[in-house]
């Protein structure tokens, strides 16, 4: 039972990394493929504290995911990462002011139901 905390850490860290990366990317000039300042954009990205924290958090998330995989079947662990999608959507709506339509809410519901079904299926 104590190893389930690794899965929870992976989920939370994965969601946090995406939110940090989004926050950092929002503070950069919008990227387009016509831009001649790709090097400047890259430097701005790697010097952005939110992007750096997002990459660090993502790396730690990968470590906790590896630790989870050492204890559980991949077919059991991997679906739980989908809970990170739910966290990101809720955070995006509440704190980033993003709009979510009915289809996205329906998709989130399907993700939640599917993940619960997989968790209940046992080994």
Describe it.
- It is a single chain.
- The protein is mainly α and 123 residues long.
- It has one domain.
- The chain has helices at residues 4-26, 38-46, 49-69, 74-77, 82-96, 102-120.
- The longest helix has 23 residues, at 4-26.
- The mean pLDDT is 90.
How is the secondary structure organized here?
Elements: H1 4-26, H2 38-46, H3 49-69, H4 74-77, H5 82-96, H6 102-120
Task: State the gist of this model.
With 123 residues, the protein is an all-alpha fold.
Overall pLDDT: 90
Helix-strand topology string:
HHHHHH
Q: How many separate domains make up the residues?
A: 1
Total E-strand runs = 0
Intertermini distance: 14 Å
Q: What overall form do the CA principal axes indicate?
A: globular
Number of helices: 6
How big a fraction of the residues is strand?
under 5%
Low-confidence stretches: none
